[in-house]
Prior knowledge:
The chain has 13 helices and 28 strands. With 529 residues, the protein is α+β, with helices and mostly antiparallel strands. It has two domains: 173 residues, Ribonuclease Z/Hydroxyacylglutathione hydrolase-like (Metallo-beta-lactamase, Chain A), CATH 3.60.15; 262 residues, outer membrane lipoprotein receptor (LolB), chain A (Clam), CATH 2.50.20.10.
Amino acid sequence: MTKLTRTEPTMKSKIATRKLRTKVSLIALAALATPHFTAFANSATTQSANQSIAFTDQAKAQTVLDRAITSIGGYEALNAIRNSSVTFATSSSNPGQAPTPGASTDFGNAFKTVAHRSDGRLSIENYNGDNLGFRYVRGAGPDWVYLAGQNAVALIDVAVGQNILDRVNTSASLLLEMADNSDALRFAGTETHDGKTHSVLVFADSFGRAVNVYFDNETGRLAKTQTLTAHEQWGDTATTMSFGDYKDVNGALLAHAITVDQAGNTTAKITVENVSLEAADEALFTQPDDATQNDPFTAPSAAARDLPVEKLAKNIYFIPNAAQGYNVIFVNQRSGVLILETPQSAQTSRDVIRTIQKELPGRKIKWAVPTHHHFDHSGGLYGYLEAGIGILTTAGNVDFVNNVGNASRNIGQNGGTPEDVNITSFDDEKYSIGRGSRKVELYNVGPNPHAEEIIVMYIPEIKSLLVADIFSARGDTLPPANANQLAFAEKLESLNLDIETFIPVHGATTKAADFWDSVKRGREAQASE
């Protein structure tokens, strides 16, 4: 008998009104989020006689900025690297992809990135080793496009664009942005930490985010920035970029060491390896002539999208690319609709909910099931929680889901805290729902090298298994099974399910024979090592 556990709403959830809590002002929020956000703490509504810092003091801000730019070589030297190509070597830690929620991850995932800036445009080439991967392009406006392998193109979510930009900002690009918009700078006082006194300026970046900028009062140089952002899992999150190891580049000192911290986690260590002042190739900013358009052509995160629906059988539906590269299944149960997979973002969840309501008008959505806790597969949790939809998960992920539901959210599109963080968990290997054509079976096929607990869904009516990450089917042929798939295959053999097709969250539906052929080749490769 499967043991089910219903998680009681937290006290925070119980005292909330039915409507999502109203957003507080950004100024007040930043003060709550971290003690270092002094720039926001001095709001116009809380200033008093003993608070001498004035937000309107642009002249003080200009003085700090002028000194900072003089300290690295002056405006002329800085302006000379406005249009440049910078090669970054990055090692990163991804706490959202650890085998268990909240676990730390080792620094690895080393890659190189080249950022080309020209006339307000930005083109980013992402390398993995020496192989060209994605190319991201930002025009002079806020829109982002990615060129996948330079032969396919699609718009990307604005939040993704922000995260990419935060990995390629240099001390020079930040100072240039501040200089170009100096009328909007405000002096926010001084702050001492790590034994050093800093002057703090506040400005709005090109995404409209309020940024605190810290300048070392001893050297005048840029030391760090702090930006408050809306994170899908962590909620209101401070992102800190620290700058050091200044070296001469054509007469201007440029920070060659950059560290990125988010929510108390160091997530990236970046080294500037090379700076070229030669004009960038115009082809880097344009779509290749032979590029195809990825489906769907995703809109910025605030825009709703109409999602396609395929009916696999009576009561069983498939949404290809609910988020780009992420498939979703929903099943019309007698007690309500069950959704398997919660990818990417709350906006994706809103799109899925609206799509189901159009397909099955009047039907209640009862449960959303994340396959596992990894950030790309759990980014949609908040979207279901805000709609009052319960989350069905494994026992080891209950605290993680509860933390997502109760995270402070006062900025961005995900404002407020759900009244009831409704979580149901199962701690046995199998959990069955429904009967007849509606029956589905959820299996926890962990532990797996990819995740300690991970759910797959078997649909007896169509003899199909939906699976995320531990088996994917991208491309025309399947490679030999990797360690994740091999561990998964061993688990499947013990379950003895009658499977004719695999439906990966990533990729195309695959015949069982092809899956097992991939496993056979993977086992042979493993045995030969």
